[in-house]
Amino acid sequence: MKIDINSLRIPIAIIDKDGNILNSNFSFDSFFHEKNFFDLVNHSYISMIKSFIENNSTLYFSERKSKKILKSENYFTINIHPISSEEFMIELYPKTKEYLTEININTKLKYLYSLIDFYNNSFTFLFSIQYLSKKELEENFFDLIKNNDFISKISKNEFSSYYFELFNNVYYYELTSNIPLNIVPLVNNSIEVLSKHIENIYNTYSKRNGTNVFEYLEIANNLIVGMFHEINNPLSIVLMKSEMLNNIIDEKYQPYVKSIVENVYRIIEITGLFKSLVKGETSQTKIDLYDVLKDVIKFMRYKAPSNISINFNTTCNPPFYIKGNKQELMIVFSNLIENAIEAIGDRKNGFININVMKLSTFYNVTIEDNGEGIPKENIKRIFEPFFTTKSKHGMGYGLFFVYNICLKHKIEINVESEVNKGTKFILKIPKIKEE
Predict the structure, then answer these.
(1) What are the residue ranges spanned by the domains of the chain?
(2) 108 bridge partner residues
(3) Which of 75-84, 198-207, 235-244, 408-417 is the most confident on average?
(4) Which residues make Cβ contacts (< 8 Å) with residue 287, sequence separation at least 6?
(5) Percentage of residues in the chain having pLDDT higher than 90
(6) Rounded-to-integer distance, Cα 333 and Cα 181, Å
(7) Contact at 8 Å (CB) between 179 and 187?
(8) pLDDT in tens, 34-50
(9) What is the CATH number of domain 285-430?
(10) Global pTM?
């Protein structure tokens, strides 16, 4: 009997009667690297497990501090059951050791937000494939995964069980030590999936020279929307378990559970907003500019640190009808606001003001910040591909795509800036007749 375990998210392995691991899925390999299951088992439990296997019986065991079956810092619920007379399936359900520890919750939220940010940056990165060489793709991909604090070390030399392949090269990497247990498989899977898509899209472009970069949106959409399922599925389980937990715990702990639920709903709302950015058609239709800005600002407020306020003002009531593509325009505004957030950095009382003014033939949208500003000699170059003044983050094509999307939508974009005082982007967006 053949079991397909690769699509299952919990750690699963198939063993024979001697404990040899015949097959294991990605999640199992994220936790364990041994070739024999009994090498993972604490000595006092080996004979018991062998007895169950010998009798073709099912074993169910929930680990706790006083009873640990596996040699691991993590806790699991273990299910071993026969699938044939010679083969057995090991199912491991990771357990959260401390449900009510606020630090633990915040750490998980931090990395879930990092994953969302990673997908956001991945989407912009995929746009760039038309303009990058293989070497530049590799370098920028490494920066992308390092800058989100997922990876502490990466090398072509084999030193870890985690790896991905890119352009016939194998790269091994180490994850940072404080990534929460239940997020490790998501991080590994995201890196593996993105590396495969980079190579596929690059090869596709090489065979179709001259193709417009926006035609690759469909490929990028499928990648990122699929990744969001990786986030939303475990969140649904967290919500369900939290509701069960709330019914059985002491009343004094219920505020902690409420905090868990509120933050999970917050993440679900963020993923919903971001999915609206990447999922859709590339054609231009009649849309409401107000709705586009409202969705982007709501998403960016989640990303902005507490020292930065994002304010949205209009001089008249919506709707503001224009002809355009919602997903591409969301990329424009999210990039401009993201740049403003980075320009402000740790400054106190940072602000980003977004204003819409309705004029006779166009809408005037301004995005103004009180960040570090842009030197005069750089202002004329900011829309060039790969031009960047950022030393640690940014690959220099964000504003290049902003400019190209604006050209596509016949939007005039200008910038005013003064060092140490701030920057203002001004966009003149053509109106269409209101119904």
Answers:
(1) 12-95, 102-278, 285-430
(2) none
(3) 408-417
(4) 321, 322, 323, 324, 325, 326, 329
(5) 16
(6) 35
(7) yes
(8) 899 999 998 888 888 88
(9) 3.30.565.10
(10) 0.46
